[in-house]
Write a structure and sequence with these properties.
This protein has 443 residues and is α/β, with parallel strands linked by helices. Helix content is 34%, strand content 16%. It folds into 3 domains: 267 residues, Carbamate kinase, CATH 3.40.1160.10; 93 residues, Roll (Archaeosine Trna-guanine Transglycosylase, Chain: A, domain 4), CATH 2.30.130; 47 residues, no CATH class. Strands 3-4-2-1-5-7-8-6 form an 8-stranded mixed β-sheet, sandwiched between helices. A 5-stranded mixed β-sheet has the order 10-9-11-12-13, sandwiched between helices. It has a two-stranded antiparallel ribbon with strand order 14-15.
């Protein structure tokens, strides 16, 4: 039995090769089969979002071209032509089961903008509550290289995080993920289950599978990594199998299961992590990188040694360790021009340098998400645990912590001789004081 047996919300992605029968035109029989399976899941009170490739591939066929073009305007023209046939086919197939569909076209720009991200999430949630099946594709007709998702595997993972789905199912023309390319290695072994964050998976994935498809197994592994950040499991399975979606939803082991074993990120931090293109980068010294990764601290100006790119206050920037690896990203409290003036300087000097001081932190930890964590030292864990145990012995339940107040006090047990005694909160992990003037965003 797999975790999909208890999944209430699923995102299903089908690739171009399956939708267009390996380039021979829309496979209406296969689409009708998936529509039947999804309709059965909806009748079981499951919520399903469908991410479908195939618009460009269908457009190429309708226009009589022998291969996928490379120029942007030709790709956009093919997408515009093919999207009509793709949506019409899905609509007719789901209508036969008494189900409504909704076409949703997204770009990375839609999800990078916080307000549009929240609008898209609210719309998709409303559609799911109404029992409508959203059919999502990238808006290839207007998208540019700078704001492309790049492939629908990535789009499916971002949609999984957007609707906080329990599982992502990627249907492909392969049986799953193998430890070698099964098309060239006869002894290739199917990976039945693995941790989605296992770095060894990247070496097992190959390149693009076909001339019509944009992504390959490597993008599917990366999609599983992204989905795992919101706690969603991923299955890569052969979409040509009979009742594949129903069987997966019943907990049957098919294909490759990539499990999410991490604690799901909060919605706002998930949004930060899902930015595909971050134009500005801050390079940190060793101490600052360690403070972020190991101790969960905020980023102070003194820890920044170099800055690349331009940005305004409130922009999303990447944080690099001394080796150039991106370890975190967050909302910056000062512009690039201001950051250049205060970096490598202590926070106490910000006001004398700039003439004002909005915040002592360059990026507050509440507005920062870690992409790689160094983990706590044993000494740090012991000290942290001791503070937590002390609080548990002498204080009221954790919920009594006044999260709205800046000082974060807790109410101790009432003594016989006096009223409630207030003491400073030990601030265990997850109970941090809010940023004083940091950008406030809804969840």
């Amino acid at each position: 039995m797999t975790p999909l047996a208890s999944a209430k919300t699923l995102v299903v992605k089908v690739g171009s090769s399956l939708v267009t029968a390996a380039g021979r035109g829309l496979d209406s029989t296969a689409i009708a089969r998936w529509a039947d399976e999804i309709a059965r899941l909806v009748r079981e009170r499951r919520r399903v979002v469908l991410v479908s490739s195939g618009a460009i591939a269908e457009g190429v066929l309708r226009l009589g071209w022998s291969r996928r073009p490379h120029t942007m305007h030709e790709l956009q023209a093919a997408a515009a032509v093919g999207q009509m046939g793709l949506v019409q086919c899905y609509e007719s197939c789901f209508r036969s089961h008494g189900r409504h569909t909704a076409q949703v076209l997204l770009t990375h720009d839609d999800l990078a903008d916080r307000q549009r991200y929240l609008n898209a999430r609210a719309t998709l949630r409303t559609l799911l509550e109404l029992g409508v099946i959203p059919v999502i594709n990238e808006n290839d007709t207007v998208v540019t290289d700078e704001i492309k998702f790049g492939d629908n595997d990535t789009l499916a993972a971002l949609v999984t995080n957007l609707v906080e789905a329990d599982a992502l199912v990627i249907l492909t023309d392969q049986a799953g993920l193998f430890d070698a390319d099964p098309r060239t290695h006869a002894n290739a072994r199917l990976i039945e289950e693995a941790d989605a964050l296992d770095p060894a998976l990247a070496g097992m994935a190959g390149g693009t599978g076909s001339a019509l498809a944009r992504g390959g197994m490597a993008t599917k592994v990366q999609a599983a990594r992204r989905a795992a950040r919101s706690g969603a499991h991923t299955v890569i399975a052969d979409g040509r199998l009979a009742d594949v979606l129903v069987r997966l939803a019943q907990g049957e082991r098919i294909g490759t299961l990539l499990t999410a074993k991490t604690v799901p990120l909060a919605a706002r931090k998930q949004w930060l992590a899902d930015h595909l293109s971050v134009t500005a980068r801050l390079r940190l010294d060793t101490g600052a990188a360690r403070a972020l990764q190991r101790d969960g601290k905020s980023l102070l100006p003194i820890g920044v040694v170099d800055l690349q790119g331009e940005f305004e206050r409130g922009a999303v920037v990447a944080c690099l360790d001394p080796d150039g690896r991106e370890i975190a990203r967050g909302l910056v409290n000062y512009s690039a021009a201001e950051t250049r003036r205060i970096m490598r300087r202590p926070s106490a000097e910000i006001e004398s340098i700039l003439g004002y001081a909005d915040e002592p932190e360059l990026i507050h930890r509440d507005n920062l998400v870690l992409l790689y964590s160094a983990g706590r030292s044993n000494r740090g864990r012991a000290r942290h645990g001791a503070r937590w145990r002390a609080a548990a012995r002498c204080c009221a339940p954790r919920s009594s912590c006044d999260r709205a107040g800046r000082r974060h006090t807790v109410v101790a047990r009432r003594s016989r001789s006096a009223g409630p005694r207030r003491s400073r909160c030990p601030r265990p992990r997850g109970c941090a004081p809010p940023a004083r003037s940091a950008p406030v965003l809804p969840c």
